[in-house]
Design brief:
339 residues; Dihydrodipicolinate Reductase, domain 2; 14 helices
Length: 339
C-alpha cells in the first residue's frame, strides 16, 4: 500500500506527540515539518525535513494530508489554505473561537471535497468508547443522565488563560463533545455555574477555575459536567452513563490496576498526572481513524461540524454564567448566523 505523504504545521508539545505517532504508522510518510521555534535536537533525532513556512507545505503537490498543530488563532486560516490546496486536514481543537470563522473554514472544506478531522481525541479513548458501545447495545436501557468529571492536576499559566477563550472553550469543550458523542443526542440548553477557588489570578484574567455545567439533551436526558483547574491527586477523568436498566462507569487510569489491602486499610494508586499519559492510546487511535477515512473514503465522525457545535455550546455556557440563566444553543447560533 502506498503511504500518504504528510506535512506537519506546528511542532510544539502536541505536534511532537502526533509526529512521533505518525513515524510509527506504516501508512504515513512525513515529508515536511514547519515551526518558527523548531526544536533542532528533536528534529535531528527523528531525521525530519524542516521547511521554512506552511506555504511550502500547501504548495507541495506530493503532500496529501496536513496536520495543523499551530496556535489556535491560526487554525481557521490554515484550514482554508490547506483545503484550497486539496489536502486532507487534521486540526487540533479549536478551529476558532468565533463560529463565523469556523463556518467559513467548513464551507471551504466542503467546496474542496477534502476531509477534515478535529482533534477530539477523547472519543477514541478505549474506556470511553466502550461506554458508548454498551449504551448503543441497549445494556443500560434509555439514557437518563451523563455525568462527566474532568479535573486537571494543575492550572495552566495565567498568560495562556488570557488567550484561551476561557475554561468553557478551552477545557470543557472536550466534555461538550463527549456528551454529544456518548449520548448520540444534541445539546439543547446549557446552564453553567462557576467560581474562582484555585488561583485568584485566574479570576483577575477574566476566567473561572471551578465549574458545574448542566446540559439538557434533545433526547430528554440530562448531562452534568464537573470541572476544576486543579486536582491535587492527579488528572481526574471519570464518566458515568445512567439509564433505565442500569449504569456504566469509566474510572481513572492509574499506572497499574493493583489495590493494596491491609489491616490499616485499602490503598490504590493515584490517577495518572498528565493528559499525554492518560490519553496516549486515544491520540494514536484518532490518527489511525483519520488515515483509514482517507484510504477507504469513509465519513469522519469527529468532523468540522463537531468542532463548530462544541464552540456554540461553550459560548452558551459563557453566556449562562454571565447572565445567571439557562441559555439555549440555538440562541447562540442565531446571534452569529441570523444577523
Amino acid at each position: 500500500m502506498k503511504s500518504i505523504n504528510v506535512g506537519i504545521i506546528g511542532a510544539g508539545r502536541i505536534g511532537k506527540l502526533h509526529c512521533d505517532n505518525l513515524l510509527k504508522n506504516k501508512n504515513v510518510s512525513i515529508k515536511a515539518v514547519t515551526d518558527p521555534f523548531m526544536d533542532q535536537n528533536w528534529v535531528k533525532s527523528r531525521q525530519l525535513n524542516v521547511v521554512p513556512n506552511p506555504d511550502t507545505i500547501f504548495n507541495d503537490s506530493d503532500i496529501k494530508a496536513v496536520f495543523i498543530m499551530s496556535p489556535s488563532t491560526l487554525h481557521a486560516e490554515q484550514i482554508i489554505l490547506a483545503a484550497k490546496a486539496k489536502k486532507h486536514i487534521f486540526c487540533e481543537k479549536p478551529i476558532a473561537l468565533n463560529p463565523i470563522l469556523i463556518q467559513q473554514a467548513l464551507d471551504t472544506v466542503q467546496d474542496a471535497g477534502v476531509k477534515l478531522q478535529v482533534g477530539f481525541n477523547r472519543r477514541f479513548d478505549p474506556n470511553f468508547s466502550h461506554l458508548r458501545e454498551i449504551y448503543k447495545n441497549g445494556k443500560i436501557g434509555n439514557l437518563y443522565m451523563v455525568k462527566i468529571i474532568a479535573r486537571d492536576p494543575s492550572p495552566p499559566p495565567v498568560e495562556y488563560i488570557k488567550s484561551s477563550g476561557g475554561i468553557f472553550l478551552d477545557m470543557t469543550i472536550h466534555d461538550f463533545d463527549m456528551v454529544r458523542y456518548l449520548s448520540g443526542s444534541e445539546v439543547v440548553e446549557v446552564y453553567a455555574a462557576g467560581t474562582v477557588l484555585v488561583d485568584p489570578a485566574i479570576g483577575e484574567a477574566g476566567d473561572i477555575d471551578t465549574a458545574i455545567t448542566t446540559l439538557t439533551l434533545e433526547n430528554g436526558a440530562l448531562a452534568v459536567i464537573d470541572n476544576s483547574r486543579e486536582a491535587v491527586y492527579g488528572y481526574d477523568q471519570r464518566i458515568e452513563l445512567f439509564g433505565s436498566k442500569g449504569s456504566i462507569t469509566a474510572q481513572n487510569n492509574t499506572a497499574t490496576r493493583s489495590i493494596l489491602l491491609t489491616n490499616k486499610g485499602t490503598m490504590s494508586e493515584r490517577p495518572l498526572d498528565f493528559f499525554l499519559e492518560r490519553y496516549r492510546d486515544s491520540f494514536r487511535l484518532e490518527v489511525n481513524e483519520f488515515f483509514n477515512a482517507i484510504l477507504e473514503n469513509k465519513t469522519i465522525a469527529a468532523n468540522g461540524e463537531a468542532g463548530l457545535v462544541s464552540i456554540l455550546i461553550g459560548l452558551a455556557a459563557k453566556k449562562s454564567l454571565a447572565e445567571n440563566r439557562p441559555v439555549k444553543v440555538d440562541e447562540i447560533r442565531h446571534e452569529y448566523f441570523d444577523k
